[in-house]
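Narrative of accomplishments. A recurring question from our advisory board has been how the design workflow behaves on a single, concrete structure rather than in aggregate. To address it, we present the structure tokens for one chain from the evaluation set, followed by the sequence designed for it. No filtering or post-editing was applied between the two.
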């Protein structure tokens, strides 16, 4: 085993638990080619898994945290994906415009955000929709994954406890009401395509630019 990149790689246990289920959802939306932008890529474990799962596309990771971008680069190199997969972008959703070139923007066919909006201020969710629409064309998708509060579904005890623990860490964090997220999406020209039940009381929410 090549040990060159071991010190830089981060391991987030939840990634290995949910990556196959998320990839299954993505398989219904990802086209045979093009580039897909991931917001808040964290350790990079999702990114490299999706790049290997969908080898014909380009998976573009991003994260505002330097330690996360170092981890992403290490995972890319460790798995021998550097010839295909670009280095992560330094994207903070609230710092606009995002550092995306015109040539890169022309390739984007979808944007994916996994487990971000409940561990960031509400202003980040607003910024993500406001800026995402600048890089997507009609019928391109934006996918959110994570736990949500939904009026038509009773919140599980585990999600209620998770919500409380997040708010104790930061009062601006917490599970978001899907209705409120939808309002922001609709305001920015997105339509709700599908809400997909996922393991561990999570959901995947697919929006398309109308």
């Amino acid at each position: 085993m090549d040990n060159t990149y071991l010190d830089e790689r981060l391991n987030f246990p939840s990634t290995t638990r949910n990556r196959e289920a998320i990839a299954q959802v993505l398989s219904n939306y990802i086209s045979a080619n093009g580039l897909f932008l991931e917001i808040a890529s964290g350790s990079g474990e999702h990114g490299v898994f999706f790049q290997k799962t969908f080898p014909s596309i380009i998976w573009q990771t991003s994260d505002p945290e330097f330690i996360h971008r170092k981890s992403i680069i290490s995972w890319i190199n460790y798995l021998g994906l550097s010839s295909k997969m670009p280095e992560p972008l330094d994207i903070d959703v609230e710092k606009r415009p995002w550092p995306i070139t015109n040539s890169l923007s022309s390739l984007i066919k979808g944007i994916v955000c996994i487990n971000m909006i409940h561990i960031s201020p509400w202003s980040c969710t607003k910024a993500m929709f406001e800026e995402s629409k600048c890089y997507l064309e009609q019928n391109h998708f934006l996918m959110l994954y994570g736990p949500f509060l939904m009026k038509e579904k009773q919140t599980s005890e585990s999600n209620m406890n998770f919500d409380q623990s997040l708010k104790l860490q930061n009062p601006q964090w917490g599970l978001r009401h899907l209705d409120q997220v939808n309002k922001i999406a609709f305001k920015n020209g997105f339509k709700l395509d599908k809400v997909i039940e996922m393991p561990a009381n999570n959901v995947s929410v697919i929006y398309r630019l109308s």
